[in-house]
Design goal:
Layout lengths: L1 H23 L7 E13 L5 E5 L14 E4 H5 L5 E13 L2 E26 L14 E22 L8 E24 L2 E24 L5 E24 L4 E28 L2 E12 L28 E12 L1
Antiparallel strand pairs: 1-4, 1-12, 2-3, 2-5, 4-5, 5-6, 6-7, 7-8, 8-9, 9-10, 10-11, 11-12
Length: 333
């Protein structure tokens, strides 16, 4: 009996606080919620591939062929900045145990650009340097890399313990996910008076399902912390388009489009701090990280071989990472 009284006495403050949260938080009575979020996201990760060599650099150390490499893909990616984006969502919650959600994500394209100049000693490292005329003995090379991402998401949430009520809340999520991820990589060599381009584009259409878990901490009826992790398999329709021209872009050496289907996995992790400013108005800030495996990246399609079939496939070995901060509001009614 004494043990029961002691346990009840220990839990009493928590029971009272939970009841207060439920009684005071009008947010729980809102069945519809509209989200508007502003994001700043960085694009990371690309494989190393040298794209511009300088024959004069070998003279510095004839035993070190690495000195030849004056520009690689990673250096171009390093010019990517944090880019703004938006996420718009709508959620319907008929009761405290479940809800439905849909959202749209769009991020402004990333772009990186690097320029290399020399005294007619630059070249692209084709296996056979006689393959082209403008990509050897060049005085300038310009590499431009663009990347863009948008997506859709539809989820069912199961709240095993009600959100914004208990000190700890646990929810599960299951849903559908779609992403469109496109890239372009253009390399221009100048061999005065000529300029010629090596232009590659990739397009990934990714469809899949996801499962996730949400943990929420509610220290007060106004402040809460959320951590959500979602993972899932996807099917990807990837294609690449290559256009390689020479002799001031008057001669076409490669012009083709290829596609393939492949499987991949993705992960999406969010950490959010919420502040319930008013009964039907929430403001929040957070951090998000997204990871994809086995997608087609534009630089990966660049091919240094010179046989007729060179580059006529779609390489899907890319592992891009997107991460950054966001802030937003939620209106309930």
């Amino acid at each position: 009996m004494r043990r029961t009284i002691a346990v009840t006495g220990f839990l009493a403050p928590f029971i009272i606080s939970f009841s207060a949260l439920a009684g005071e938080n009008m947010w729980l009575n809102d069945h519809w919620k509209i989200f508007a979020e502003f994001l700043y996201i960085q694009r990371e990760e690309v494989g190393y591939k040298n794209i511009v060599d300088d024959v004069n650099k070998q003279d510095l150390d004839p035993c070190d062929c690495f000195n030849l490499h004056v520009l690689n893909v990673k250096k171009v990616l390093s010019q990517f900045n944090l880019e703004p984006g938006v996420r718009a969502s709508i959620a319907y919650q008929p009761n405290a145990q479940r809800s439905l959600e849909g959202n749209f994500l769009w991020i402004n394209p990333w772009e990186g650009r690097r320029v290399v100049k020399a005294n007619q000693s630059l070249y692209f490292p084709f296996r056979n340097l006689d393959y082209t005329s403008d990509y050897v003995n060049a005085s300038k090379a310009v590499a431009t890399y663009t990347s863009r991402l948008w997506g859709l998401e539809f989820n069912y949430w199961r709240h095993w313990t009600p959100r914004y009520v208990n000190y700890f809340s646990v929810s599960g999520v299951a849903g559908l996910r779609y992403f469109n991820f496109r890239e372009g990589f253009k390399l221009q060599f100048s061999n005065p008076p000529d300029k010629s381009d090596y232009d590659v584009h990739t397009d990934n259409n990714m469809f899949g399902v996801q499962l996730g878990l949400n943990l929420q901490l509610n220290p007060t009826n106004r402040i809460s912390w959320d951590v959500t992790a979602k993972v899932g398999p996807m099917v990807n329709h990837a294609d690449q388009r290559t256009l390689l021209r020479d002799q001031d872009n008057t001669v076409t050496l490669r012009n083709f489009k290829h596609q393939r289907w492949n499987g991949l996995t993705f992960a999406d992790v969010l950490a959010v701090l919420n502040f319930q400013a008013k009964d039907h108005f929430n403001v929040h800030v957070g951090y998000e990280l997204m990871y994809f495996s086995n997608v087609a990246l534009a630089p990966d399609q660049i091919n240094k071989k010179t046989r007729p079939t060179a580059g006529r496939d779609v390489k899907t070995g890319g592992h891009p990472i997107f991460h950054g901060v966001f802030a937003g509001i939620i209106i309930g009614f």
